[in-house]
Every structure is written in C-alpha cells, then in structure tokens.
Amino acid sequence: MRLFSCRCMALFFAMFLFVYPMRAQNPGSTRPNQEKPSDAQGGPEQVKKPAGKVLFQRSLDGSGNVVSTTGSEATAQAKLLAASVANDSERSATAITRMDLDVRLNTEAQQIAVRGLVTVRNAGSAPLKRIPLQISSSLNWERIRVAGHDSSYSVSTLNSDSDHTGRLHEAAVDLAQPLLTDASIDLDVLYSGKVEATGQRLISVGTPEDEASHSDWDAIGADLTGLRGFGNVVWYPVASRPVILGDGASLFEEIGRQKLQAEGSAFRLKLTVEFPRDHAPTLAAVNGHALNLSISNTKELSADVEGIATADTGDTKLSFESPSLFVTSETPHTGTHLTVYSATTDEIASKSWLAAGSRTAPMLERWLGPQARTELIVIDLPDAEDAPWESGPLLAIPVRNGEQGQIESLLAHAMTHAWMAPSPYWLNEGAANFMGTVWDDQQHHRDRALTTLESGRGALALAEPESPGKAPGQPLARASSPVYYRTKSAWVLWMLRDILGDEPVSTALRASNAAGDAGQAFERALKAAAPMRDFSWIFADWIDADHGLPDLSIEKVYPNAVQSGNWLVSVTISNAGYAAAEVPVTVRSATNMTTERVLVPARGTVTPRLLVQGKPTEAQVNDGTVPETQATVHVMHLDETADAHAGAQQQIR
User: Fold this and answer.
1) Which of 89, 110, 534, 649 has the greatest count of CB atoms below 10 A from its CB?
2) CATH 2.60.40: does it fit domain 552-652?
C-alpha cells in the first residue's frame, strides 16, 4: 500500500493557483466534425418500430453516437465548418438559465448520450441572430430543435482548454427571429460520444505525459465515472469564450465567469446508467450531492445483459459550482459525517480515513453545530498520484494510508462543506479553508496553520488592485476567482476570530447555516455576539468592497524608561494600503513581553504606547494572521548600545 501522497495535499490546498506556460493559438486552425454516416450509408441496423407515433427514441450505437428518431425520422440540419461563425460577443451574451438533462451512460463502453432542454437568455445589449452552444470535442451534436422544429446550425471546432481535449465542438444555432435583449428561448438538444481520460491539453503546453494524466483523469468507466464539468470536461452545453492555458489567468477567469452566470439557474438531471452485471453502481452524485439510486435486479438477467440504474435530481438550483457527475461501483464505508467509497485494495486505508474523520468531527460540531446539513462523500481515485478535487460536500482523492495529522487537517476542511450553506460561496469555501487551519492550530500546529495561510498570500497580493481606482478587484460577496473566495476569505475569518474570539465567530457561522440569507445572517450574528466591538471596516474594506491589502511598516520606535524597571514604548505604524487592518503589536524585553491589538486605518498612521517590564529589545507588528502586500510579520530590533530609536533595525518577513 502506497503512503498518502504529500503531493496530493499540496495540490489540494494550492488548487487553481498554478500558471502554465503560454501556448500560441491559431484561430484558423480548427478541426471539423466528422460526418456521421446515415443509416443508408451503413449506419446502425433499423429495427421494426411499434405501432403508434414515436415522439422520442434513443439508444447508443457501437461508436457511442445516438441513434434517434423524432417524428418521422427527420435528421439534424447541420453544416460542418472549419472555422466558427460565432463570435465572443455572442458567446458572452448567451446566458443559460435552465438545463433539464436526460443523461444515459454506458459505463463499459465509456459512452454518454444526452437529450437536454436548455433555456437561453440574451444577456447582451443587441439582438442575437444565432445561439452558440459548446460541448467537448469528444462529443458530437446530433440534433437541435427550436419551438418543436429542427433548426439549422453550423458546427465548428474551437481551440479551448476549458475541456481536457483542448477543443470544443460549437454549434451556432440559426434563429428564425432575432432574440431580443433579456428575452429567452428554449432549445431541445441531442448529443453523444465517448469520454476517455486524456491529458492532451496539458501535454501540448509541455507537461510530462504522466503528470498530465494524473491531472486530467475525467472519464466514463465501469468502476468510476468522473465528469468534473467546465474547466475539466464540458459534458453539458455551455456558451463560453475560447481560452488557453498559459494565457495569464484567462482560463480561470472564464471558469469563474461561467460559475457566476450559472449560479441560481434551474437544473435537473435524470440519469440512466447501463452497467456490467458485476459493476453495479453504489453511488451516483450530481453537483456534489448523492442521489437515490434505483437498480435493476441483475440476478434475473443473463450474463451478457447489462444492468440498469436510474436516478433523478429533481428540480434544483445551481450554486457557484461547475455541474459535475460521478458514478462509482466502489464499496461504501460509513463513518461520522462522511462515507468513503474505496476500491477493494484500499479498504484498509479507508478505515484510517474514517478514524481521522471521527477525531475531527467533535471540533466541527463545536464550531458549526451538532447536526450537519448532509455528509461528506469521499470517492477513491484509482491512482495514488491523481490530483484531488472537490465540489461542495464531495471530495475525489486517492484514499491511501498516510500521516494522520495531514488527513485530519484535510478532512477538517472537506467535512466543513457538509455543514455550510452553498451560498454565499465565499463563506462556504472560506469556512472550509478556515476550519482546516483552525484544526491545525488547536492541535498545537499553529506554524503549520499560518504556513497554509501564507502559501496563498503571494498570489492574492498579485491579484489585488494596487488601489481601488486602478482596478475594481473582487469583493468577496461577488468573487469568482479561487484566490479570493478560498484564500482571502479564510484570512478574513482568521482576522474576525483574532478580534472577537472563537465563540462569536462560531455563533455567526451556525446562524449563517440556519438562515436563507446566509451572508446577511452571518453579519447580523456577529454584531449580536459582539455588540461593543466595531468591525464594520472589515465588511467595508474586505467583504462588500475590495480595497486591496494593507501595506504596513514600522516607522519609529521610542522606548522610555519610566519607573521600577518598566519601559513605555511608542511604536509608530503606517499603512500605505487602501484597506484598514487590526493587527497585534508586541514589545519584548529580555524577560517579558506585552501585546495589544491596534487598528491601523487605510492610508494612515497610528502610534500605540505599550508598557513592558525590562529594557525593550524588539517591537513586532502583525504575527502572520493579517495578509499584506509585502509581508505579514514586521520586527524592529533595538540596539542596546545606542539610543533605541537611532540604532533600530527593521526586519520583515
């Protein structure tokens, strides 16, 4: 049994923070779809149809394509093009507000067939003459209907790394009448294909093949089907701008834009899984949540007949997540607030994960309440080097034996999603990152907790605007980038904890999970729990608006001997940033130390005076719990052989 990979831990906490080298894109270099042969050209053999009018009939042929009949066997009126006819303004204006998907999987053949009812709204300022819709280049458009009639559409192949193949198949659907601004239209779409794991998009930018395969593991399979959605594999219709890895943060910005646009939209998925008799699914999860599976009695079937499993999400709303679909036949192991689905070879390791979860659960119950909203689903990835991934209360990760402290810290993060309301997303993700570091802190590993926070500060400092006037930034309430809703939000919760204490923050997190307006409930509960404290500046500068990060420095330190060996030390602190910050200020002597918390206003200066026993040797501002543009710890050493303020030397880290 391989040990739990430290690389998995690093990938889990640093998700979305890497940048790939730039790859040149040639807009004219596209690959047209291949024509699907008609029945007359050697297509699937036709069977005798039952009497009566067939409204919709569908199955998969040996190539993973749909064999469908609608009405009198009309075929899709598609034109295959080498270059796209749609443009980015049309793609940006196409907002999908509802998806009702009927999905059929053949796990042994790695095939998927989908019929979808998709509602599109024109979010642009000009009428739309056509609707661009995209799916993975491993899938093929079969038919698109508008208002009950087959619609003509052009199909082209786009270079875009939002899919693991590095390409998308885009259908530009012609409209009989332009779609006016804010108007909506329904489209009935049909597509199918085969989804296999491929690291092509990463290999094309120089990533070693083995590493690429461990990152892009999305595939349909008998043991595990994992389709992570836009940014990994585009298995449902989207309207996106083509983006490539290495072009700055364009891919991650487009992922965020897609999530923001889809948040709150209607979503339903009806699932049918055809599976080999000895691979009956034990779990189907859509958008991170387990579905109730209905499985056929395979004992009554012959050996060569596939079993059938069905499930239905019912009417739901999308949160700030890319729609995902997981189906596994792994063995479930139930624990406290979590179930681990593992391969037979990893059953011993799964028990250590359950034990780690039982040790972590009491802290989460104290902080977030005794009853979770749901449970964490852990799905075992097949290779020990596969990159972890999470979606709400679902964690896909190699389940291996490892250092228990690391597993406990990871589960403290992941299990938090079982408690937190899905919206606002900054509070959901921020609380998960926060609780992971709080676990380390309470297990006497404060240095590890601060190291985890610090690991994302550099990327956050680069993303933040230098001033509110130079760029709008991303207020946490509307953040779409992981560096904000994961990293910055965890810092904010740490700041609130240091200012108010554990109990008020715990009370506010519990209140946010019990209310429909989680974000407002969180703020109200904080004010009620600490009515005498003014922390409105945190919401003004850090949550409701983005004023960047503070930029603190120690300007002067003046120690003065008073009486009985006591010294009164004045520490002048300046803030060159546009966000206020409350930080701990500490003065140390050879035998003693004094700490006070001080609010340093944006673009301002303060001079607190601290009383310490013994001659002061150093002054420190911030202790690593407040993110800054340059550093999170400032230390000024005082020279004992000269006047302290004249010989002081400042150190930052």
Assistant:
1) 110
2) yes
